[in-house]
Structures are given as structure tokens and as C-alpha cells.
Amino acid sequence: MLIASPNSPLGYPIHGVQVLPLSTIHLPGLQIIANLSTYKVTLEASLGTIDFLFKISGNTECQVNGKKEKKLSFSTSNIAVLNSILRSITYTSIVYSIDSLDIVKFTLGEHVAQIPVLIRQPPMPRLHDPGPERKIRDLVTITTKTFLRYDKLRTLIKSIRKFYPDIKVIVADDNDEFEKIDDPNVEQYIMPFAKGWFAGRNLAVSQVTTKYYLWVDDDFFFTSETKIEKMVDVLEATDLDLVGGNVAGNHFCFTLIFEEGGEDGDCLHWRKGGFHTIPGFPNCILGSGVVNFFLAHTDQSLAVGYDPKLNRMAHTEFFIDGLGRLRVASCTHVIIGHQKKEKPKHKDLNLIKYNSFRYDTQVRFKLGLHYFKNRLSCFTRN
Asked: CATH top-level class for 136-381?
């Protein structure tokens, strides 16, 4: 709460006044410091009504109009009575809105002050039970999407079990020929064939019941340097929503610079690197987007979502949709391995089939979606 000092004759709150929808609050900090023969004061709202609690005695010369209405005015020659009234002013919200701003005009002669009143319904908290022993399995679920690479997926799961034997793994699977993953802590969700990359991400994350989820590609593998606990430490100690790691030495981080445009749309500029390091975590840098290995708050991530229209190649698009909504950082001290792409000794039909989908890049479609959905007139990369 910030109360403005009377640089003009008017003292009034300039920040921090908040009211629940259809509720009443005291409007603090109102006062007048001036030496006039008569004080004519007006308070006018748009989304609420103005009232006061001070009882005016019968012998006090004070004219009042508009009590409990949008516009309240009073006139008096008694500065003490005037400030007593101002100290008891109330504001009542009369429009139900979960997030609106009313500007109350406070007027004395030629002096006009504008008081911001936030009408807001606070969202309900969503708490997550970390469990009595606060084990990593109670805080984190590992998620992945697989397509025509069961051999890679099995290698990934085997490596996870080496370091996290009982953590839950959720697999979104849009293969045409289904192979069951035999593991009591793996949930395998079957999708229509080739349903797509972001549709699979949506499905996997939608089934997470823990506070965080760890996203990994199906051709990664865990090593002794894949310490999920270190990523949890970063999120628990900061206000970040998502923290990325290092994939086989690739500490990938980028920034998105928004440039407000005119009627034709805005501009978005993609740049390599981040903004600055995070206090207390010298291995972590703030940015706009990270590599495909990250730990994220489940609820905040679901609120942004993965656009299922992007079914082949997509990554940056999630972070564009989350710009201004997700706080993102990238850290170098948590590393996951990347399975090598070995050349097949014979004609691998699965690999040929995979590549026919993987490299159908949708570039033209993705750009069109960017420009329309995100209201862009230009998008640059370097």
C-alpha cells in the first residue's frame, strides 16, 4: 500500500487498493491540506459507489449529495469535518468482475486525483502434498512422448530406473503397432496413430498429479549427473515456473523480445542466450525458452498448454504462447544424456517411416499459425 503525500492539496492512495467483487472496503489515505473559505469536494467512480461512515451533527454546515451513489459530493467550510469525512470514505463494488480496474476521481476545485481501485477475485490456491518423507517421487512425474522408437524408449526407462526406481513415468504413445511397456510405475497412454508431438505432450502432462513434471525426449538417458533434486531446489527457492537443463553438453537457452506494433500486428525477435544469472544459483540464467529437458510447475504449464495443431516439429511455440505467463530459466549443472543416432546396418523401415514424419517440418504452416494466432507482423531469428 502506497499513500501519496499531499504535494497538491490532495492526499490519496496511489497503489494497493483492492476489493472483492460486490464487496465494500475503506478507501484509505484521503485528506486535504489547504486553507480555503469553502471546500467543495467530489469523489466519482465508474464500477462502484461511494459512501462515508462519519456521522455529521445537525449543527455542522455540510452539504452532501450522492451518498451511496457513483458520484458523491460535499461542501463545507470546516476542514476538520471534511477530513473526518474523508477518513471514513468507503468504496463498494457494484459490478461482478474477477479482474477489473476502476479509477476513482477525487476533485477539489481545479485539483484532480485519480485513485486506482482493483476489483479482483483472487484465485483459489492449489496445494500439493509433498508426502511425509518428501521423496522426489511425491514431487515429480517424468513425462515423455514416443513414436516409432520403442528401442530408444526402453533404454530411457532402464536408465531412469537405475537412479529413480519408483518414480512414475507417463508415456504418450501414438505408434501404429503398440508394444506394452512392462513396468508397474509406467503409465502408457495410447493415442491415434501419428496424432502428433504437442498432442502427446498435452496428454502426458494432463495426467500428472504431482507438483512438477520433468519433460524428457524418448531418446534421452539418465546419468549420474541427471539430478532431478537440483532442479527442484531451483523451483522451490524462486518464483520460476520452469527450469531447463543440459542435454549432452547442449545448454540451450533463448530469449524472446517483444516489440509492440500497430494495427498490422506486433513483432517478436528470437535471440540466442539469456538475460542474467539468478541470485543464489550461478549455474542458472533467466531466459524465455530452454531445451527439451526441463522441470515445470504442472498447473502453470497446463494453463499455457501445447498447441495440438503442431503435430510434427515444435518447441519454441510453447514458449511463445507462455511469454509473459511463464518465468523460465536454464541451468548447466543438471545433465541428461542423448542416445546416439547410429546408422542402421540394413534398411530400417521404422527409421525411414520415422524420418518421413519427423522431417515433414510444417515450417510454412507454423509461420502462418504464429502470424495469425500471436498477431504478428514480423518474426525474426538470429
From this structure: alpha beta
